[in-house]
Amino acid sequence: MPSSPKLFHARPSSYIRRSTALILCLLIGLSGLAFGLLAISRHGLGYDCKVGKPLSVSVRWDKTGGGSPDEGLKRHKVMGFVGIQTGFGSAGRRAALRRTWFPSSHEGLHRLERSTGLVFRFVIGQTSDPSKMSELKKEVAKFDDFLLLDIEEEYSKLPYKTLAFFKAAYALYDSDFYVKADDDIYLRPDRLSLLLAKDRSHSQTYLGCMKKGPVFTDPKLKWYEPLSHMLGKEYFLHAYGPIYALSADVVSSLVALKNNSFRMFSNEDVTIGSWMLAMNVTHEDNRKLCAAECTQSSIAVWDIPKCSGLCNPVEEDAGASQ
Ligand SMILES: *[C@@H]1O[C@H](CO)[C@@H](O)[C@H](O)[C@H]1NC(C)=O
Ligand SMILES: *[C@@H]1O[C@H](CO)[C@@H](O)[C@H](O)[C@H]1NC(C)=O
């Protein structure tokens, strides 16, 4: 209230002037109080409204085109959308995450979003098993922290889910970065936020812990590559799968492409890497995204390269948070 100091300094020479000043003061004070109460009630209402609104969102795809989710969705502006890819067998991992770095309540998710500019959701598809679906429904009702994709979870080993995730996240959020992460890593959201907020000269960024590596031609091996005849002995540079980020410009190009128009290798990280190889992106390598243990600067911690995540995610997540 800029007028208060003037009234405070009103000369006491005239009684009338003084009482006018007092009445004015009282009026201003009262209106201030009323304004304050109004603001509090408004804020309170808006707040309740936000907290009450479901956070989980289900994405239905247009079956004919396989294109985009429902038209008319309002995209929320954020700095980063972090999709934690999870599955029907991973309730224990999600519980471990919610006990450690992943907020376990609406209020916590909102607070983390406000402090980091990052939205975190578990990303899961569907299954034909009704009992598993009803378990998931209960978990969605309880924690409300999911992005539900309209695809069969059986494809989760293949890169289809990742592409569906990027399309859904892009449709729902106007984000600077889209982060794909697995549910078996330990993450520091505050440090991830600082990394994504960094100034970059290129708008097309592929950010992750970069590697090359042998192409496996033996079908008995876990990382066997049936399309190895198209590759050399070593893969092109690509980010490890447990966590990587694509900038908005990159994701918008992926979203624009028709389903089935991209080559899918058997490994998800390699597949994304092959698309990035074709695109004019900057490969930004950051070893803090694949730290073997918690340090002053580690962003994501997992058992590189022993497991493609933490080897014992449920126990180790609890250990890392200590
Ligand atoms: C895209 O194509 C794959 C392979 O044909 C299919 O399994 C998947 O369900 C399709 N996805 C969408 C969103 O239509
Ligand atoms: C690739 O991107 C850079 C930086 O944005 C730009 O200067 C360059 O012209 C692009 N190259 C091609 C082939 O489009």
Automatic annotation (TrEMBL):
The chain crosses the membrane at residues 21-40. The keyword Transmembrane helix applies. Its EC number is 2.4.1.-. The keyword Glycosyltransferase applies. Its cofactor is Mn(2+). Belongs to the glycosyltransferase 31 family. Pathway: Protein modification; protein glycosylation. Pfam families: Galactosyl_T. It is found in: Golgi apparatus membrane. It comes from the Eukaryota. InterPro entries: Glyco_trans_31. This is Hexosyltransferase. Beta-1,3-galactosyltransferase that transfers galactose from UDP-galactose to substrates with a terminal glycosyl residue. GO terms for molecular function: galactosyltransferase activity. It is a single-pass type II membrane protein. GO terms for cellular component: Golgi membrane. Keywords: Glycoprotein, Glycosyltransferase, Golgi apparatus, Manganese, Membrane, Signal-anchor, Transferase, Transmembrane, Transmembrane helix. It comes from Dorcoceras hygrometricum.
